[in-house]
Amino acid sequence: MAEQILVTRSSMPEFGEYMDEIQGLWDSHWLTxxxxxxxxxxxxxxxxLGVENVELLTNGHMALELTLQAMNxxxxxxxxxxxxxxxxxxxxxxxxxxVFCDIDPVTYTMDVExxxxxxxxxxxxxxxxxxxxxxxxxxxxxxxxxKYELKVIYDAAHAFGExxxxxxxxxxxxxxxxxxxxxxxxxxxxxxxxxxxDSHLGSALYELKNFGIHGPEEVSAVGANAKMNExxxxxxxxxxxxxxxxxxxxxxxxxxYRSHLEGVEGLRLNAVQADVEANYAYFPVxxxxxxxxxxxxxxxxxxxxxxxxxxxxxxxxxxxxxxxHRQYDVNETxxxxxxxxxxxxxxxxxxxxxxxxxxxxxxxLACRM
Length: 369
Ligand code: T4K
Known about the structure:
Blueprint: E1 5-6, H1 15-28, H2 36-49, E2 54-57, H3 60-70, E3 76-79, H4 85-92, E4 97-100, E5 123-127, H5 138-148, E6 151-155, E7 163-164, E8 167-168, E9 175-179, E10 192-196, H6 199-208, E11 213-215, E12 218-219, H7 230-261, E13 267-269, E14 276-277, E15 283-287, H8 289-292, H9 296-305, E16 308-309, H10 334-342, E17 343-346, H11 354-366
């Protein structure tokens, strides 16, 4: 049987490069708790992301969850349901109430026209998502947040290495939370980071990721254990050396996809955003069944029959999850509902060959017959 093509495939450095990076850990026996690899990855990321402050964490989810905790927020957080479970869970697990804003039909990010109508006297923050690496309207969100004195925490899990108008995307808002999961443009196996403006937030995050320990004999907060270990940090250091090449190779695959699928009636490809240095994190395609001639489900099944694992990122919407016991009304986010029922993310990773892209597109287009 031919090898399966999955939605993504982790990029890894040469084995020898990683071995060299971790050699010192055998000598020092220092494996975690903010060791030398942790510190050096943190420093390198500041430069690469163009931000002043970075705090490393075990994963993108803990980045979101502990950032909300560190800000000591109460009340309602405006967010979108067109995202991975993590965004909404981080809000709920902090005892905060998610208030769902609909998404923009072109970028799939928070529809800024609809934010102000959702603000109440209980609103404390906005948590928009740079979904698929599509950048939110950071200027308008910044304006609204300033006007109503709200915190802005970006879920930047998909946005590693991107910039807007030449400025690192992690420098917008009060904080931006990145994921370095194995499936991301940049991975440290598991990992995440928070970029933030206010240095007090850094000290709070540093303590919260280490059980809230303030000093040898003082525990001042109910923290978690969310410290990135040395092996993950070492993987991050290796992958960071190759991430620009990673993005270039992804770009080539995206261009190849576009050469086949652009302009096909009933298919909507991801928006190309002005002033954004993109990272080509995902390749979402929206299938309008009546125009295209086949539904998302048919395309998904046909690809699966051929050993190709496209994914329905992000279906179902988080405001329909059974764990929320019908607390939210999905009809309040009709655009998100429409897109989530029709979108498929096609395989995309640095090692994906042009022949594989051709093959995937052939199968997709043949679904119309
Ligand atoms: N916010 C947003 C918007 C997010 O999308 C995410 C994570 C987060 C926050 C939270 O960040 P983290 O806490 O995860 O750092 C995957 C990822 O696990 C998850 O990180 C990601 N978003 C989400 C969109 O996708 P699954 O359940 O779809 O993963 P899985 O195991 O099905 O893997 C997908 C494909 O990736 C596989 O078919 C093959 C490939 N793969 C997977 C793994 C685990 C590899 O090549 N290597 C691997 O090690 O969630």
